Amino acid sequence: MSDLALKYKAPRGTSDLVYPESEKVEGILRVAAAELELRGYRRISTPIIENTDLFRRSIGEATDIVAKEMYTFEDQGGESLTLRPEGTAPVVRAYLERSLHARGLPQKLYYLGPMFRRERPQAGRYRQFHQIGAEAIGSPDPFIDAEIISISEALFARLGLRGYELVVNSVGCRECRPSYVRMLSSFLEGVSQQLCDECRRRSRENPLRTFDCKKESCRQALESAPAIGEQLCPACREHFTATCGHLDRLGIRFRVDERMVRGLDYYTNTTFEFQFEGLGAQNTVSGGGRYDYLAEQLGGPATPGVGFSLGIERLLMAVDAQGLDPFPGLRLDVFVAGAPGADRGRVLDIMTAVRNAGISADSDFMERGLKAQMKQADRLDARLVLIVGKDELERGEVTFRDLDQSRQWQVSLSMMMSELRDFLEGVKRDG
Ligand code: ATP
Ligand code: MG
Fold first, then answer.
1. Which residue in 77, 203, 270, 271 has the most C-beta neighbors within 10 A?
2. CA separation (Å) from 347 to 335, 352, 355?
3. Which one of the ligands is nearest to 283 CA?
4. Pair 275, 356 in one domain
5. Segments forming the whole domain that contains residue 378
6. Ligand 2: distance of its center to the CA of 366 in Å?
7. Where are the beta strands (DSSP E) in 10-159?
8. Mean of the pLDDT values across residues 154-179?
């Protein structure tokens, strides 16, 4: 079909996930879930829509996300709803609403699913993207910070990924951040001529946000900005030192960047990012940090928390860029082909019997000739073809055809299932 004839397309910045990529993603999600469950995290699913205020309050009015990227709409009842741009605020909302603290602290929760931000689409940046993330709510222990960081690293190791760097920082707390922000503010005044319009606005509304700017001129102007790391209060310094110590203990290598702040306002103390080589500007695959005031901001009791989120599309980009193929697409075990003159009912009976034994099987539903059925079996990448022929059936036999080895042999119907199992086991054993 030509493009002109196509009236409907997926909205800009979104895309369909089609096999085998969809199966690759499933594989990655399975491994990620296993790594999370290995560390005691349990699955949570929150709604795709939330009340708009939840995000305004938590992520911060001056952030790019709230200022210009949210998909917000009024529903028929006049309520303002937003497609979730991130997962942490919803999880903390659910923790408070469902009184999850009563199940014991910390609550260790993980989620996976789509997020929505109206960004300019480009490689690694979409309007609907998918995250896997986790939150540990209720504990201030720096070991939990290190544990949260370790999950991405463990997933990368399971997938065989290399060529990345973990960058960590502390952005302080209520005690030490205000005086730092004042310092930064007066620094920004001094360089305001070099800043873009947006950063000038940011320096008035929320000076920390100037660090998010991707413009080269702003980045240069900020190079000599005071670093928050040097201004931490003793408690924050101690927490950060302990977190770094635990990372060392876990054997996780990292670099401290005292100017790294992340794009959401709710972070306190630890922040971190995993940055990959060779992914261009969209090189952060996973990031997160601590958010000790978030529960309070949402109207709950003071509750510390720390979490991460990882972009599945960016993870896949890294997997592809490094030539890895950890989860090849599904393969059909058996294609049941009917030779000319064979009773179609018997062909379908054999296919059903194979399926009932837990072996994947498919057949022809397009009235194809035998040669075309072989081609179809090849397209489906079937491990084995069962050819059901009229004369063979009368003798109580079927033909096994191994497409990979181009050989075939006769098997009696009574031995068909056990031979099938032996064959497939052999295929698995030999790779
Ligand atoms: P960036 O600086 O690249 O915009 P971010 O700081 O906005 O990232 P977070 O909000 O912390 O990212 O989200 C965590 C992860 O989700 C990112 O590291 C990235 O892998 C992924 N992610 C964020 N925004 C997008 C997007 N628009 N498209 C695809 N993946 C995204
Ligand atoms: Mg962003």
1. 270
2. 10, 9, 13
3. 1
4. no
5. 334-425
6. 48
7. 42-43, 49-51, 72-74, 80-83, 107-116, 128-137
8. 96
